[in-house]
Amino acid sequence: MRITLIAVGKTEDKYLIEGIEKYLSRLKHYINFNIVIIPDIKNTKSLSEAQQKTKEAELISKQINPTDVVVLLDEKGKKHSSISFSAYLNKQMIGSVQNLVFIIGGPYGFDETIYKRSNTSVSLSDMTFSHQMVRLFFVEQLYRAFTILKNEPYHHA
C-alpha cells in the first residue's frame, strides 16, 4: 500500500518543515508515503469562497486516481484514538488498498465535488488548527500508527 497526503498551499514555518521532515524520514521504514502540495490559488481577493474551493477541487482532483481510497481530513469527520486509527490503516492494508489518499483542504474546506469523491473523512480534533500544523500532526499520527501496528515502544498506551 502507498499513502499520499495532498495539501493545499506550502508550509512556510521552518519549525513545522523540520518536524514534518523528521516524521517523513521515520515513515520510510514502514510505508511508501509521499506528500503532494497543491499551489495556493492566486488572486483570491477577486474570488468568492465557493469559487476558491472549486478551483482547489479541480487541482486536487487531478492528483486522485479512480481506484484511490480518499480520506478527507475534515472537522466533521470520524474521530479516532491513535489505536483505532492504526486499526483503520491495518484494515486498509489487509483489504488490499493500493493507494490511500488523505487530503487537507484549503482555508475554506472542501468543494462539494471532493466530498462526493471521498470514501470517508477523519477529524484529528474538535479544535481548529492551522492547515500547516495539521500536516505535522497528521504525519506524526501516521508514524505513531505504524509503531502501534509493529508493537514498538513509541506509543505508550
From TrEMBL:
Binding site for S-adenosyl-L-methionine: L73, G105, L124, S125, D126, M127, T128, F129
Subcellular location field: Cytoplasm
Entry's EC annotation: 2.1.1.177
Keyword Transferase set for record: yes
Reactions accelerated catalytically: pseudouridine(1915) in 23S rRNA + S-adenosyl-L-methionine = N(3)-methylpseudouridine(1915) in 23S rRNA + S-adenosyl-L-homocysteine + H(+)
Function: Specifically methylates the pseudouridine at position 1915 (m3Psi1915) in 23S rRNA.
NCBIfam families: PRK00103.2-4
Protein name, as recorded: Ribosomal RNA large subunit methyltransferase H
